[in-house]
From TrEMBL:
TM helices/strands, residue ranges: 12-34, 46-67, 79-98
The protein's name: diguanylate cyclase
Catalytic activity line of the entry: 2 GTP = 3',3'-c-di-GMP + 2 diphosphate
EC primary class: transferase
Pfam families associated with the record: GGDEF
SUPFAM superfamilies with a match to the protein in the record: Nucleotide cyclase (SSF55073)
EC number of this enzyme: 2.7.7.65
């Protein structure tokens, strides 16, 4: 809309003053207006009309201001209404084509940028969000927690696949990758829409559960642990079963340091490993 008002008053100024300077100003601001159109994803009749008005006005200015100067050094050329109309249509049509080309180029660049951003925020193997994306979503969730009239806890579930290194060493990295992908699938199918799973690194996965008390978090962790343990992976005629250990911690308010809470989940996870793996540890059952 600002571009529209700029064009209106500038066109009036151009016709009112009758100075050649107005043509150059109109052309300059016209290019700015055209650029602003290309930044709008809602292309259509409005932008086409705006571009046509812009360049039609320039067509009239060419005939009424440029041609008198040209006539000084060339045989006189007398503009007619038909020639003015045709030139305006040609310039307006050219503006429309240029606008569409710029719009499509900008749209393509925007799409490419969105895809690159998605790649930067996603683990390529499992399709889950990566650590960078996790912290970005955590900031959003903590801001929501802060705005809530009834502050709620955010649960962190830190998973580590048991004996994963031996799986890679014994069966190869191809099998290891398959196990990681299957575990990611279990996560996706076991969580709510508002929950946020991520690959934390290596064979570790961190899940964010908004508005979840400790008992609810334990239920979710046990569900994922049992589902994953029930899977069977076939390899060269042999069946492989895997398990996972889990550490759970809760962030009760935005004033708490989330990294410290995640480290606490990591401590509980380490305790689960020491106790024999394939189990869930939280403040409810950890060793004092």
């Amino acid at each position: 809309m600002p571009a529209t008002f700029d064009l209106i008053w500038l066109t009036v100024l151009a016709y009112g003053t009758g100075h050649i300077t107005s043509f150059f100003i109109l052309g300059y601001l016209g290019s700015i207006a055209l650029s602003s159109m290309s930044l709008d994803r809602n292309y259509g009749v409005y932008n086409a009309f705006l571009a046509t008005v812009l360049f039609s006005s320039m067509g009239f200015l060419v005939y009424y201001e440029i041609l008198p100067l040209v006539n000084i050094i060339m045989p006189p050329v007398k503009p007619t209404l038909l020639s003015i109309f045709i030139s305006s249509l040609l310039l307006g049509g050219s503006a429309f084509i240029v606008n569409q080309i710029v719009s499509k180029l900008f749209s393509s660049l925007t799409d490419v940028n969105e895809k690159l951003m998605a790649i930067a925020m996603t683990d390529p193997l499992t399709g889950l969000s990566n650590r960078r994306s996790f912290f970005s979503n955590l900031e959003i969730e903590m801001a929501r927690q802060h705005r809530s009239s009834n502050p709620y806890p955010i649960a962190f579930l830190l998973f580590d696949l048991d004996l994963f290194k031996s799986i890679n060493d014994t069966y190869g990295h191809e099998m290891g990758d398959l196990v990681l992908v299957e575990f990611a699938t279990v996560l996706k199918s076991s969580l709510r829409k508002q929950d946020f799973p991520s690959r934390w690194g290596g064979e570790e996965f961190l899940v964010l559960l908004p508005n979840t008390e400790l008992d609810g978090a334990i239920v979710v962790a046990e569900k994922i642990r049992c589902t994953f343990q029930s899977l069977s992976f076939a390899f060269k005629g042999k069946q492989l079963q895997c398990s996972t250990s889990v550490g759970i911690s809760l962030l009760h308010s935005p004033e708490e340091n989330p990294e410290s809470i995640i480290n606490l989940a990591d401590q509980y996870l380490y305790e689960a490993k020491k106790k024999g793996r394939n189990q869930v540890v939280s403040e409810k059952n950890h060793s004092v």
